[in-house]
Amino acid sequence: MSEAQITDWLAAQRQAMIDLLRAVVNIDSGSYDKEGVDAVGARFERHFAEHGIPFRREHHDSFGDAIHADVAKPGSNEKPVLLMGHRDTVFGKGEATRRPFTIRDNRAYGPGVADMKSGLVMNVFVATAFHKFGGSPHPIKVLITSDEEIGSPSSRPVIEREGRAARAVFNSEPGRPTGNIVTGRKGGIFMHLAITGKAAHSGANFAAGVSAIGELAHKIVHIHGLTDLAKGITLNVGLVAGGQSVNTTAPYAEGQIDLRYIDPADRATVMAAIENIVATSYVPGTSATLTIKGEFVPVVQSEASKALFETYQAAAKHAGLTTLQGEFSGGCADSGFTAAVGTPTICGLGPVGGLAHTPEEYLELDSIVPRAQALALAILRG
């Protein structure tokens, strides 16, 4: 086996990769749509079966099953290289019908085309290349998860387990619009704030009422006040709801909070401040509860992760990606979980795309082959 065999085969698979990408983009797979997420998983399983790659499902009752595939060296008990990615999207049922996979001006469009179904297609084809030709210095494990877009409530323990068992993790979230990959990410906590007040007629009996909406307004101002841009800490109450009618003091209100931070040490400080705000009644008679709905941990570059990036960067130059650099992202990803368990991790290795989570999400089709080649060469040289 030579490097050229792997890279030439991947170059020859450009249309096959696009065809598989079209198939999975055209299946709705919102995070809460277990049937759709599992249908995407089944399409990848079909690819593994067609190429003789061993795979298995790890069942989950509520969210999509985890898909595992292995390209192992016979008799090897070495730690594998883990190729990781998620197949859920932020889009609801029917989006793939309304906005199916299309190609215009050498860009592909469709729900999840960049974030991150193209990265999964790339991972699968790189693993297939090594299954076909051999040559990997280490076993390769492919992990396809199901609920990253909502904080990986079912996948986190799977990711942490597989991350601990791996020698290195390549997470194929979309490459940055700059063409760079991601070497650092913010952590994030997604919270639900519920406030109880007391209903009363706002004209005839105003003084008897206790406004939960009024309390929520005070709390939002104080929560937003915890933002510290210099430290990379941001607080955003992005969704609010509440009230009974325009002429009733609101008996209930709720808000959903997004916290982002860079330094792992800042988590406890900011959370303590939020919990103090939640416990304080700015409108007497109200009460509040806070629930964490999902959480990601930061990707902090270790020395081992820096060395992994340098190996990848050199491989990428060989594949023609001569200007590729590491980049910090304020977005969260599953790569934080593997970085946090101490495994060298880099992220954003997928084909280049942008405008994720919007109807304008796109993928640069010419990036598919060189990004696949770069990943394969990084594995070979690892």
Automatic annotation (TrEMBL):
Peptidase M20 dimerisation domain segment(s): 183-285
Domain of life: Bacteria
Cited PROSITE patterns: ARGE_DAPE_CPG2_1
CDD domains, A to Z: M20_CPDG2
UniProt entry keywords in alphabetical sequence: Hydrolase, Metal-binding, Zinc
InterPro entries the record matches: ArgE/DapE_CS, Bact_exopeptidase_dim_dom, Pept_M20_glutamate_carboxypep, Peptidase_M20, Peptidase_M20_dimer, Peptidase_M20A
One Pfam family per UniProt: Peptidase_M20
Cofactor(s) annotated in UniProt: Zn(2+)
Molecular function per GO: hydrolase activity; metal ion binding
Active-site residues annotated for this sequence: D88, E148 (proton acceptor)
Transmembrane stretches, start-end: none
Alphabetical list of PANTHER family matching this protein: ACETYLORNITHINE DEACETYLASE, BLL0789 PROTEIN
UniProt-recorded name of the protein: M20 family metallopeptidase
Organism: Bradyrhizobium hipponense
